[in-house]
From TrEMBL:
Natural source organism: Streptomyces dubilierae
CDD domains xrefs: CbiX_SirB_C, CbiX_SirB_N
Pfam families hit by this protein: CbiX (PF01903)
InterPro entries membership: CbiX-like, Sirohydro_Cobaltochel/CbiX
Protein name: Sirohydrochlorin chelatase
Key words, A-Z: Lyase, Metal-binding
């Protein structure tokens, strides 16, 4: 409606749509992994309904990342690895798939290390029965997938350090493959130090073969994988926002 001065106000400008958030999962033959990842994405969507959220796998499950990116066409997208440390997938596989796609992509950091992961690890341990024994006899093995990349082991060791500071007990990282110590070796080390109540913290994003094998090696309690813990959804969005802040050319999303 014209104003009293006869001037027509300019039309409201529409805020550009935020870039797509593409969660990049590894993939697993265990059907529980895919259902867990999909449930986690639902949590992310609920926290930020204005952001389009998609899933792409590195291998083993559909949709594969190249197919997800191809479907996005020339859309702007931020790729958030659902991985807990740096390694070959973060440094090579995902960037190469992104470079071969038509989408305009930006790579976010992997989820770990970060205090939000420590929140989730602590809660999963508590759910499994942690806290029922004296600290002087307790310890934790942080079981991770493993990688030959030294940066991956550095990141896992950092998470172990953060979890130890939180719990007030020793926390040793251990690996299911490609690195040492194994869970059995870490348990023996802690037993030799007089720690009789040794819990296993499952440093996996979802159930799968490695998580199951590590849990079976636990001498006392074994926590569930991180899965759909609320901190995981928060951390996915935190990494997405970090990548956007590092790229002024991409529009910032509107928080819910």
């Amino acid at each position: 409606m014209p104003s009293q001065l006869g001037l027509v106000p300019p039309p409201a400008t529409r805020r550009p749509a935020p870039p797509a958030l593409v969660v990049v999962a590894h993939g697993s033959r265990d059907p529980r992994a895919l259902s867990t990842v999909r449930a986690l994405l639902d949590r992310v969507r609920a926290l930020r309904p204005g952001v389009p959220v998609h899933l792409g796998h590195i291998e083993l499950n559909a949709p594969l990342l190249p197919d997800t990116l191809a479907a996005l066409g020339g859309t702007e997208a931020v790729l958030v690895p659902l991985l807990l440390s740096r390694g070959y997938h973060v440094k090579r596989d995902i960037p190469e798939m992104a470079a071969a796609s038509p989408a305009r992509t930006r790579m976010a950091a992997p989820l770990g290390p970060h205090p939000l992961l420590v929140d989730a690890l602590q809660d999963r341990l508590t759910e499994a029965g942690w806290g029922a024994t004296p600290r002087r006899t307790s310890a934790v093995v942080l079981a991770a997938a493993g990688s030959r990349d030294p940066d991956a082991r550095t990141d896992t060791a950092r998470t172990a350090h953060l979890l130890a500071a939180r719990l007030g007990v020793p926390v040793l990282p251990a690996y299911a493959s490609a690195a040492t110590p194994t869970v059995h070796q870490a348990v023996r080390t802690l037993l030799a130090r007089g720690r009789r109540h040794i819990a296993l913290a499952s440093y996996f994003t979802a159930p799968g073969r490695f998580a199951t094998e590590c849990a079976q090696a636990a001498p006392w309690i074994a926590a569930a994988p991180l899965g759909t813990h609320p901190s995981m959804a928060e951390l996915v969005l935190h990494r997405y926002d970090e990548a956007l802040r590092a790229s002024p050319s991409l529009p910032l999303p509107v928080s819910a």
